[in-house]
Amino acid sequence: MLGSSDPIADAIGLLRPRTVVEPRLHAAGPWAVRFDPFPHVKLGVVVRGECQLALEGHEPVLLREGDFYLLGNPPPYVLAGTLTAEPRPAKPLWDSAANGAVRIGAEADEDTYLCGGHFTFDDTNASILLDVLPPLVHVHAADPRGKLLAHLSELLVTEVETTAVGGSLVLDHLAQILFVHMLRAHADQADRPTGWLGALNDDGIGAALRAMHADVAHRWTLEELAGISRMSRSAFAASFKNQVGTAPLEYLIEWRMSLARDALRRGTRSISELAFATGYQSESAFSTAFRRVVGSSPKQFRDAAHRAANSGCGSCGSLSDASPAAPTPARRSTAASGSS
Predict the structure, then answer these.
(1) 3-class SS at 54?
(2) Best label site of 57, 182, 268, 298, fewest CB within 10 Å?
(3) The pTM is what?
Protein backbone atom coordinates (compact mmCIF):
# COMPACT_ATOMS: atom_id res chain seq x y z
CA MET A 1 0.00 0.00 0.00
CA LEU A 2 1.28 3.44 -0.95
CA GLY A 3 1.10 6.37 1.45
CA SER A 4 -0.05 6.79 5.03
CA SER A 5 -2.56 8.88 6.97
CA ASP A 6 0.19 11.42 7.74
CA PRO A 7 0.77 13.84 4.83
CA ILE A 8 3.90 15.31 6.43
CA ALA A 9 5.47 11.85 6.79
CA ASP A 10 4.45 11.06 3.20
CA ALA A 11 6.03 14.25 1.88
CA ILE A 12 9.29 13.76 3.80
CA GLY A 13 9.39 10.17 2.59
CA LEU A 14 9.38 11.39 -1.01
CA LEU A 15 11.88 14.16 -0.27
CA ARG A 16 14.46 11.71 1.14
CA PRO A 17 16.22 14.47 3.06
CA ARG A 18 19.99 14.36 3.38
CA THR A 19 21.14 16.12 6.54
CA VAL A 20 24.36 18.12 6.84
CA VAL A 21 25.29 19.43 10.28
CA GLU A 22 27.38 22.53 9.75
CA PRO A 23 30.17 24.06 11.82
CA ARG A 24 29.14 25.69 15.06
CA LEU A 25 29.56 29.47 15.04
CA HIS A 26 31.12 31.18 18.07
CA ALA A 27 31.23 34.98 17.79
CA ALA A 28 32.27 38.04 19.76
CA GLY A 29 32.21 41.76 19.08
CA PRO A 30 30.86 43.27 15.87
CA TRP A 31 30.41 40.50 13.30
CA ALA A 32 28.38 39.60 10.23
CA VAL A 33 28.38 36.62 7.84
CA ARG A 34 26.86 36.64 4.36
CA PHE A 35 25.30 33.45 2.95
CA ASP A 36 24.47 32.53 -0.61
CA PRO A 37 20.97 31.50 -1.71
CA PHE A 38 20.15 27.89 -0.86
CA PRO A 39 17.67 25.83 -2.90
CA HIS A 40 16.32 23.63 -0.11
CA VAL A 41 16.03 24.08 3.69
CA LYS A 42 18.28 25.52 6.42
CA LEU A 43 17.68 25.04 10.15
CA GLY A 44 19.37 26.76 13.08
CA VAL A 45 19.18 27.64 16.77
CA VAL A 46 20.64 30.44 18.86
CA VAL A 47 22.24 28.47 21.67
CA ARG A 48 23.56 31.56 23.46
CA GLY A 49 23.27 35.31 22.94
CA GLU A 50 21.33 36.90 20.09
CA CYS A 51 21.81 37.98 16.50
CA GLN A 52 20.10 39.57 13.51
CA LEU A 53 18.85 37.56 10.52
CA ALA A 54 18.46 39.68 7.39
CA LEU A 55 17.01 37.93 4.32
CA GLU A 56 17.44 39.88 1.11
CA GLY A 57 14.19 41.70 0.35
CA HIS A 58 12.86 41.29 3.91
CA GLU A 59 13.07 43.25 7.15
CA PRO A 60 15.76 42.00 9.59
CA VAL A 61 14.57 39.69 12.38
CA LEU A 62 16.08 39.57 15.86
CA LEU A 63 16.88 36.03 16.96
CA ARG A 64 17.19 35.69 20.72
CA GLU A 65 18.70 32.94 22.83
CA GLY A 66 16.71 29.73 22.40
CA ASP A 67 15.04 30.84 19.16
CA PHE A 68 14.89 28.46 16.21
CA TYR A 69 14.71 29.43 12.56
CA LEU A 70 13.93 27.49 9.41
CA LEU A 71 14.72 28.95 5.97
CA GLY A 72 12.86 27.58 2.96
CA ASN A 73 14.68 28.11 -0.33
CA PRO A 74 16.17 31.33 1.12
CA PRO A 75 17.57 34.20 -0.94
CA PRO A 76 20.98 35.65 0.02
CA TYR A 77 20.98 36.55 3.71
CA VAL A 78 23.14 37.79 6.56
CA LEU A 79 23.51 36.61 10.15
CA ALA A 80 25.05 39.36 12.27
CA GLY A 81 25.76 40.53 15.76
CA THR A 82 25.22 44.02 14.35
CA LEU A 83 24.00 44.92 10.86
CA THR A 84 26.52 47.76 10.68
CA ALA A 85 29.42 45.27 10.55
CA GLU A 86 30.89 44.44 7.14
CA PRO A 87 29.69 40.91 6.26
CA ARG A 88 32.30 38.30 5.47
CA PRO A 89 31.40 35.47 3.04
CA ALA A 90 30.35 32.24 4.72
CA LYS A 91 32.16 29.74 2.49
CA PRO A 92 35.78 30.64 3.34
CA LEU A 93 34.81 30.97 6.98
CA TRP A 94 33.21 27.51 6.95
CA ASP A 95 36.23 26.14 5.08
CA SER A 96 38.43 27.27 7.97
CA ALA A 97 36.44 25.28 10.57
CA ALA A 98 38.47 23.35 13.13
CA ASN A 99 36.95 20.55 15.19
CA GLY A 100 33.53 21.34 13.75
CA ALA A 101 33.52 25.00 14.79
CA VAL A 102 34.42 28.47 13.54
CA ARG A 103 35.20 31.47 15.66
CA ILE A 104 34.89 35.21 15.08
CA GLY A 105 36.56 37.41 17.68
CA ALA A 106 38.28 36.51 20.92
CA GLU A 107 37.12 33.39 22.75
CA ALA A 108 37.19 35.24 26.07
CA ASP A 109 34.69 37.80 24.72
CA GLU A 110 32.30 35.29 23.08
CA ASP A 111 28.68 36.39 23.37
CA THR A 112 26.96 34.42 20.59
CA TYR A 113 26.81 30.70 19.83
CA LEU A 114 24.83 29.27 16.91
CA CYS A 115 24.26 25.70 15.76
CA GLY A 116 22.68 24.76 12.45
CA GLY A 117 22.61 22.64 9.37
CA HIS A 118 20.81 22.12 6.13
CA PHE A 119 18.70 19.56 4.31
CA THR A 120 18.93 18.71 0.64
CA PHE A 121 16.02 16.95 -1.00
CA ASP A 122 15.30 14.78 -3.98
CA ASP A 123 15.04 17.48 -6.66
CA THR A 124 12.16 15.78 -8.44
CA ASN A 125 9.92 16.08 -5.37
CA ALA A 126 11.39 19.12 -3.60
CA SER A 127 8.58 21.42 -4.75
CA ILE A 128 6.05 19.38 -2.72
CA LEU A 129 7.37 21.09 0.39
CA LEU A 130 9.24 24.15 -0.85
CA ASP A 131 6.15 25.51 -2.60
CA VAL A 132 4.31 25.76 0.74
CA LEU A 133 7.18 27.05 2.89
CA PRO A 134 7.92 30.74 3.46
CA PRO A 135 11.52 32.02 3.38
CA LEU A 136 11.52 32.13 7.20
CA VAL A 137 9.79 30.20 9.97
CA HIS A 138 10.75 31.71 13.34
CA VAL A 139 9.91 29.91 16.58
CA HIS A 140 10.56 32.01 19.68
CA ALA A 141 12.01 30.38 22.78
CA ALA A 142 8.97 31.56 24.75
CA ASP A 143 6.47 29.95 22.35
CA PRO A 144 4.74 26.76 23.58
CA ARG A 145 6.51 24.70 20.93
CA GLY A 146 9.78 26.48 21.69
CA LYS A 147 9.94 24.78 25.07
CA LEU A 148 9.85 21.35 23.43
CA LEU A 149 12.41 22.42 20.84
CA ALA A 150 14.70 23.55 23.67
CA HIS A 151 14.97 19.96 24.93
CA LEU A 152 15.84 18.76 21.43
CA SER A 153 18.34 21.60 21.12
CA GLU A 154 20.17 20.42 24.24
CA LEU A 155 20.52 16.95 22.72
CA LEU A 156 21.63 18.41 19.39
CA VAL A 157 24.30 20.61 20.97
CA THR A 158 25.60 17.72 23.06
CA GLU A 159 25.96 15.55 19.96
CA VAL A 160 27.67 18.18 17.79
CA GLU A 161 30.16 18.92 20.55
CA THR A 162 31.21 15.28 20.91
CA THR A 163 32.39 12.49 18.63
CA ALA A 164 30.57 9.61 20.28
CA VAL A 165 29.98 6.35 18.44
CA GLY A 166 26.80 6.52 16.37
CA GLY A 167 26.79 10.30 16.53
CA SER A 168 26.02 10.81 12.85
CA LEU A 169 22.92 8.63 13.11
CA VAL A 170 21.74 10.44 16.25
CA LEU A 171 22.33 13.81 14.61
CA ASP A 172 20.39 12.78 11.53
CA HIS A 173 17.34 11.72 13.51
CA LEU A 174 17.50 14.73 15.84
CA ALA A 175 17.72 17.08 12.87
CA GLN A 176 14.74 15.45 11.19
CA ILE A 177 12.73 15.58 14.42
CA LEU A 178 13.52 19.28 14.70
CA PHE A 179 12.55 19.70 11.05
CA VAL A 180 9.13 18.11 11.63
CA HIS A 181 8.51 20.25 14.72
CA MET A 182 9.36 23.37 12.74
CA LEU A 183 6.87 22.33 10.05
CA ARG A 184 4.25 21.82 12.76
CA ALA A 185 5.05 25.23 14.19
CA HIS A 186 4.56 26.78 10.77
CA ALA A 187 1.25 24.97 10.30
CA ASP A 188 0.10 26.15 13.76
CA GLN A 189 0.74 29.84 13.13
CA ALA A 190 -2.23 32.14 13.58
CA ASP A 191 -1.81 33.62 10.10
CA ARG A 192 -2.43 30.15 8.70
CA PRO A 193 -0.09 29.32 5.81
CA THR A 194 -1.54 28.42 2.46
CA GLY A 195 -1.16 25.04 0.79
CA TRP A 196 -1.63 21.50 2.04
CA LEU A 197 0.63 22.07 5.06
CA GLY A 198 -1.54 24.82 6.47
CA ALA A 199 -4.77 22.97 5.59
CA LEU A 200 -3.82 20.02 7.81
CA ASN A 201 -4.94 21.94 10.90
CA ASP A 202 -8.39 22.57 9.49
CA ASP A 203 -10.79 20.02 10.99
CA GLY A 204 -12.66 19.51 7.73
CA ILE A 205 -10.08 19.89 4.94
CA GLY A 206 -7.35 18.29 7.06
CA ALA A 207 -9.51 15.19 7.56
CA ALA A 208 -10.05 14.87 3.81
CA LEU A 209 -6.34 15.26 3.12
CA ARG A 210 -5.45 12.57 5.63
CA ALA A 211 -8.07 10.25 4.15
CA MET A 212 -6.71 10.65 0.63
CA HIS A 213 -3.15 10.06 1.78
CA ALA A 214 -4.16 7.02 3.83
CA ASP A 215 -5.76 5.23 0.86
CA VAL A 216 -4.61 6.50 -2.53
CA ALA A 217 -5.96 3.31 -4.15
CA HIS A 218 -9.53 4.18 -3.20
CA ARG A 219 -11.63 5.72 -5.98
CA TRP A 220 -12.48 8.85 -4.05
CA THR A 221 -15.44 10.97 -5.07
CA LEU A 222 -16.09 14.59 -4.21
CA GLU A 223 -19.17 13.51 -2.28
CA GLU A 224 -17.18 11.08 -0.09
CA LEU A 225 -14.50 13.65 0.70
CA ALA A 226 -17.10 16.29 1.49
CA GLY A 227 -18.78 13.84 3.86
CA ILE A 228 -15.51 13.21 5.68
CA SER A 229 -15.13 16.99 6.03
CA ARG A 230 -18.76 17.32 7.17
CA MET A 231 -19.45 19.88 4.48
CA SER A 232 -21.63 20.14 1.41
CA ARG A 233 -19.97 19.27 -1.88
CA SER A 234 -19.88 22.88 -3.06
CA ALA A 235 -18.63 24.27 0.25
CA PHE A 236 -15.96 21.56 0.48
CA ALA A 237 -14.73 22.10 -3.08
CA ALA A 238 -14.50 25.86 -2.58
CA SER A 239 -12.79 25.61 0.83
CA PHE A 240 -10.32 22.97 -0.35
CA LYS A 241 -9.28 25.01 -3.39
CA ASN A 242 -9.01 28.16 -1.30
CA GLN A 243 -6.77 26.54 1.30
CA VAL A 244 -4.76 24.04 -0.73
CA GLY A 245 -4.64 25.93 -4.02
CA THR A 246 -6.07 23.22 -6.25
CA ALA A 247 -9.29 21.22 -6.62
CA PRO A 248 -9.63 18.13 -4.38
CA LEU A 249 -9.54 15.47 -7.11
CA GLU A 250 -6.79 17.31 -8.97
CA TYR A 251 -4.74 17.30 -5.76
CA LEU A 252 -5.36 13.56 -5.44
CA ILE A 253 -4.19 12.91 -9.01
CA GLU A 254 -1.05 15.00 -8.51
CA TRP A 255 -0.25 13.16 -5.27
CA ARG A 256 -0.82 9.76 -6.91
CA MET A 257 1.56 10.74 -9.71
CA SER A 258 4.20 11.89 -7.22
CA LEU A 259 4.05 8.46 -5.58
CA ALA A 260 4.09 6.79 -9.01
CA ARG A 261 7.15 8.73 -10.19
CA ASP A 262 9.01 7.78 -7.03
CA ALA A 263 8.11 4.08 -7.35
CA LEU A 264 9.08 4.02 -11.04
CA ARG A 265 12.43 5.68 -10.37
CA ARG A 266 13.24 3.18 -7.65
CA GLY A 267 11.82 0.20 -9.52
CA THR A 268 9.79 -1.01 -6.55
CA ARG A 269 6.65 -1.93 -8.51
CA SER A 270 5.69 -2.94 -12.02
CA ILE A 271 3.56 -0.51 -14.00
CA SER A 272 0.49 -2.74 -13.70
CA GLU A 273 0.95 -3.06 -9.91
CA LEU A 274 1.38 0.68 -9.66
CA ALA A 275 -1.80 1.31 -11.62
CA PHE A 276 -3.96 -0.56 -9.11
CA ALA A 277 -2.00 0.79 -6.11
CA THR A 278 -2.85 4.35 -7.19
CA GLY A 279 -6.56 3.78 -7.78
CA TYR A 280 -6.79 3.00 -11.50
CA GLN A 281 -8.73 0.03 -12.83
CA SER A 282 -6.39 -0.59 -15.72
CA GLU A 283 -2.82 0.03 -16.78
CA SER A 284 -4.03 2.05 -19.76
CA ALA A 285 -6.09 4.41 -17.57
CA PHE A 286 -3.10 4.90 -15.29
CA SER A 287 -0.79 5.54 -18.26
CA THR A 288 -3.16 8.16 -19.66
CA ALA A 289 -3.29 10.01 -16.32
CA PHE A 290 0.46 9.71 -15.87
CA ARG A 291 1.19 11.12 -19.33
CA ARG A 292 -1.20 14.03 -18.73
CA VAL A 293 0.54 15.02 -15.49
CA VAL A 294 4.16 14.06 -16.17
CA GLY A 295 4.38 14.48 -19.95
CA SER A 296 5.62 10.98 -20.76
CA SER A 297 4.39 7.42 -20.42
CA PRO A 298 5.26 5.46 -17.26
CA LYS A 299 7.59 3.20 -19.26
CA GLN A 300 9.40 6.15 -20.84
CA PHE A 301 9.77 7.81 -17.45
CA ARG A 302 11.05 4.62 -15.79
CA ASP A 303 13.54 3.88 -18.57
CA ALA A 304 14.87 7.46 -18.59
CA ALA A 305 15.26 7.42 -14.81
CA HIS A 306 17.17 4.15 -14.89
CA ARG A 307 19.45 5.38 -17.68
CA ALA A 308 20.21 8.51 -15.69
CA ALA A 309 20.97 6.44 -12.59
CA ASN A 310 23.26 4.09 -14.48
CA SER A 311 25.12 7.01 -16.04
CA GLY A 312 25.90 8.38 -12.58
CA CYS A 313 23.80 11.53 -12.98
CA GLY A 314 24.48 13.61 -9.86
CA SER A 315 20.94 14.95 -9.63
CA CYS A 316 19.59 11.41 -9.73
CA GLY A 317 21.50 10.13 -6.71
CA SER A 318 18.29 9.59 -4.80
CA LEU A 319 17.49 6.64 -7.03
CA SER A 320 19.79 4.55 -4.90
CA ASP A 321 19.02 6.22 -1.58
CA ALA A 322 17.78 4.22 1.37
CA SER A 323 14.05 3.96 1.93
CA PRO A 324 12.28 6.80 3.77
CA ALA A 325 12.28 4.67 6.92
CA ALA A 326 16.06 4.54 6.88
CA PRO A 327 17.30 8.10 6.14
CA THR A 328 20.85 8.79 5.05
CA PRO A 329 22.99 9.51 8.14
CA ALA A 330 23.86 13.12 8.81
CA ARG A 331 27.22 14.46 7.72
CA ARG A 332 29.29 17.02 9.57
CA SER A 333 30.29 19.73 7.12
CA THR A 334 33.44 21.74 7.32
CA ALA A 335 33.15 23.13 3.81
CA ALA A 336 29.56 24.13 3.23
CA SER A 337 28.80 26.27 0.21
CA GLY A 338 27.61 29.41 1.94
CA SER A 339 25.42 27.61 4.44
CA SER A 340 24.37 28.37 7.95
Answers:
(1) strand
(2) 57
(3) 0.78
